[in-house]
């Protein structure tokens, strides 16, 4: 989305980066080294479809190789361009540093509207794109590891992994060449929902500290908070579903491509999602009010706004009309640099993208480790853990029998305590821990340093310091 006088997405990321480095004491050479995108590869390739050759344009950009492999999703959308891919690659560098995933930043994209092609055609296109990238080591377990992004998912990742494996038949680590794969093709439990789950964990951590809640002018806990979400795709759907089902939040607005739904009471997120799958949009959904101008619902009265679709949706044209006191950037770059300034001046609290949607890359990191270690998490220790828990349960049972009516174990305790952690429980625990620790590192700066006026600056400071330390350690 472009608005007159509005910086592009790439310029927005640069402006935000500049605000942060302005507060730091980096040598100018190092600052420049961190800012610039190392390389962007553009490929044009043809695929024979429906009797004629169609030419596609794709990109893979590598922002920083201070750690390798570099990591970042592959996006399928008509608006993909070099600037966008480079901005997204830069965000990946900072995101990985912030959540301590040991990767540099990268991103890829293909200019395509995936809805215009059937599954077989998409497979042909994806395999050809993957071939072009893999032959230049832009897909490689030790150098460059893609993941899903807008317009792509498990299916595309499985094709990419298979294409790489066909081209590298003796690479024992071939499966680690891409993350976000289906479970039966080397994926990990909990990856599909990881980004949305991360958004939920981020909000839970935000509401744990009354100082943060105060800054947004909110009160209490997540329970009952009115939420508007834009984009009911992978990220938005899971975030909205978990927040409603597990935290008692109310989903009062859902914005999609063809308009929005609003409701005074919480909507059934699964029912809306099923409706979209069946009808291609939200229009006609019976249990909420349809609003044709979907973007206007970004300005609705609510407690939390979750833009989870695309970049630039909160910009100079609507920033001053946004009523939500708290915005969590589930999408990458939904708030432009100009809008960011307007919102900051209004006192809106923004949980920034590089942190808010880092759940995806965090669980991708776990998947990559799983692929390299060739073993499912929890396989070795789960039963042993259960056996140890059984010992405690047996002792408690003895006590229970001895004390009779005076004391007994709480209902369900036995069952809950006995269950050893499987892969999904471990992934969730690792993700929760990562999201908490990264948030706390931003929170500390936000509350303790006068110059750190908002969470975005805090996030940039924490991550740029880590990237700088990594370059320094290399002697640069
Ligand atoms: P997706 O393709 O699964 O979903 C995007 C959703 O947004 C779709 O439902 C689409 O219909 C909707 N949408 C598109 N244009 C819209 C518009 N103009 N107005 C309203 N809705 C619109 O994509 P996703 O994977 O959920 O990614 C969404 C955002 O999250 C992107 O910015 C992406 O970069 C970011 N992100 C995704 C992941 C991930 O793991 N998938 C990780 C980190 C960040």
UniProtKB/TrEMBL annotation:
One term of GO molecular function: glutamate dehydrogenase (NAD+) activity
Superkingdom of this protein's organism: Bacteria
Site (Important for catalysis): 149
Entry keyword set: NAD, Nucleotide-binding, Oxidoreductase
Presence of the UniProt keyword Oxidoreductase in the record: yes
CDD domains for this protein: NAD_bind_1_Glu_DH
Pfam families: ELFV_dehydrog (PF00208), ELFV_dehydrog_N (PF02812)
UniProt: NAD(+) binding residues: 195, 234
GO terms under biological process: L-glutamate catabolic process
Coiled coil: none
SUPFAM superfamilies: Aminoacid dehydrogenase-like, N-terminal domain (SSF53223), NAD(P)-binding Rossmann-fold domains (SSF51735)
Active site per UniProt: 107
Domain Glutamate/phenylalanine/leucine/valine/L-tryptophan dehydrogenase C-terminal as annotated: residue spans: 188-475
Transmembrane segments: none
Positions that bind substrate: 71, 95, 364
Keyword hit for NAD: yes
Sequence similarity: Belongs to the Glu/Leu/Phe/Val dehydrogenases family.
Protein name: Glutamate dehydrogenase
UniProt source species: Cognatishimia activa
Underlying gene: gdhA_2
């Amino acid at each position: 989305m472009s608005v007159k006088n509005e910086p592009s997405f790439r310029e927005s990321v640069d402006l935000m980066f500049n605000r942060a480095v302005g507060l730091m004491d980096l040598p100018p050479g190092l600052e420049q080294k961190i800012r610039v995108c190392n390389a962007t590869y553009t490929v044009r390739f043809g695929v024979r479809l429906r009797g004629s050759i169609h030419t596609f344009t794709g990109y893979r950009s590598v922002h920083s190789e201070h750690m390798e492999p570099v990591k970042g999703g592959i996006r399928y959308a008509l608006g993909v361009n070099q600037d966008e891919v480079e901005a997204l690659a830069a965000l990946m560098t900072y995101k990985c540093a912030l959540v301590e995933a040991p990767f540099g930043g990268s991103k890829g994209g293909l200019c395509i509207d995936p809805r215009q092609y059937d599954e077989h055609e998409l497979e042909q296109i994806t395999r050809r794109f993957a071939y072009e990238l893999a032959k230049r080591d832009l897909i490689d377990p030790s150098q460059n590891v893609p993941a899903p992004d807008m317009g792509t998912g498990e299916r595309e990742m499985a094709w990419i992994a298979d294409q790489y494996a066909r081209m590298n038949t003796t690479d024992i680590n071939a499966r680690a060449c891409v993350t976000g794969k289906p479970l039966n093709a080397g994926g990990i439990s909990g990856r599909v929902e990881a980004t949305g789950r991360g958004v939920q964990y981020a909000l839970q951590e935000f509401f744990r500290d009354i100082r943060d809640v105060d800054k947004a002018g909110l009160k209490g806990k997540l329970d009952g908070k009115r939420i508007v979400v834009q984009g009911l795709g992978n990220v938005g759907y899971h975030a909205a579903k978990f927040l409603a089902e597990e935290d008692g939040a109310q989903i009062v607005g859902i914005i999609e491509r063809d308009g929005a739904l609003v409701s005074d009471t919480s909507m059934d997120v699964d029912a809306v999602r099923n409706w979209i799958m069946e009808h291609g949009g939200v229009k006609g959904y019976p249990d909420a009010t349809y609003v044709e101008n979907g973007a206007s619902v970004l300005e609705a009265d609510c407690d939390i706004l979750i833009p989870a679709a695309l970049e630039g949706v909160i910009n100079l044209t609507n920033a001053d009309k946004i009523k939500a006191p708290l915005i969590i950037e589930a999408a990458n770059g939904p708030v432009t640099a100009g809008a960011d300034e307007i919102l900051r001046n209004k006192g809106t609290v923004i949980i920034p993208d590089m942190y808010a949607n880092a759940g995806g890359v965090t669980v991708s990191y776990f998947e990559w480790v799983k692929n390299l270690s060739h073993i499912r998490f929890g396989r070795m220790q789960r039963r042993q853990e259960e056996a140890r828990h059984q010992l405690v349960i047996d002792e408690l049972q003895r006590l229970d029998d001895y004390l009779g009516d005076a004391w007994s174990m709480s209902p369900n305790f036995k069952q809950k305590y006995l269950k050893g952690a499987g892969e999904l429980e471990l992934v969730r625990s690792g993700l929760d821990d990562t999201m908490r620790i990264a948030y706390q590192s931003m929170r500390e700066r936000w509350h303790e340093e006068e110059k750190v006026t908002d969470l975005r600056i805090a996030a940039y400071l924490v991550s740029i310091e880590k990237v700088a330390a990594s370059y320094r350690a290399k002697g640069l």
